[in-house]
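quick one, 224 residues, struct below
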Amino acid sequence: MQRDDFRKRMASGAGLSMAEQLYSVVMALDSAELDTDIEIGGIDQLLNMQMCRRVMSERGQEPEIILTTALIEGTDGSGAKMSKSQGNYVPLAAPPNEIFGRLMAIPDRLVPVYLAALTEITDAEIDETTAHLHPMAAKRLLAHAVTAVLRGGEAARAAQEEFRARFSKRSFRELDLPVVDLSLDSGSLLEALRAEWLSGRSRADIRRVANSGNKTKSASGASF
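---
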């Protein structure tokens, strides 16, 4: 009941579910079972991790050390935290091109925030970078640095070159672009697209995005 959102809901008569009340205890039992030395999580998990320490202590174990980190705003710039459920995140297991591309798509104001949170560039260097570099150049620095950490320097350079070819040079001749087989007995281009690499999209969704002139991504990472 220390949680502000829980107190507000109780005061409004909304109530709490049993799962919400027991979540921190079940999470704590995981730490106790693993006899965890240290647990790292977002600041929003502080009370849950404190419960881990309490349960471990009650069981006669050495309480784990807890380390919290600041939450990162999502890539869409809406103000919501980065979350898989919101879709405003950078998947750690994604291909280099997707990692690079997602970071290049963030709002300009998030560049210094991401540089501070996701790279080892110092605060002074970040201030210098954002003061003198064009926002796109600063984004390239960020995207390259993060992609290099996750996939290696060579993959980061290749992803940067492909991004430049796609969106700067408008050169697609040497890129590994998706191919749609129009020989399929699909009846329409729309059905061929769904059959080849947009199977997760409904016909209405494909039409909506096509009519809007915007790009979207399939589950496979293909854009249209």
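The chain has three domains: 4-69, 74-175, 180-206.
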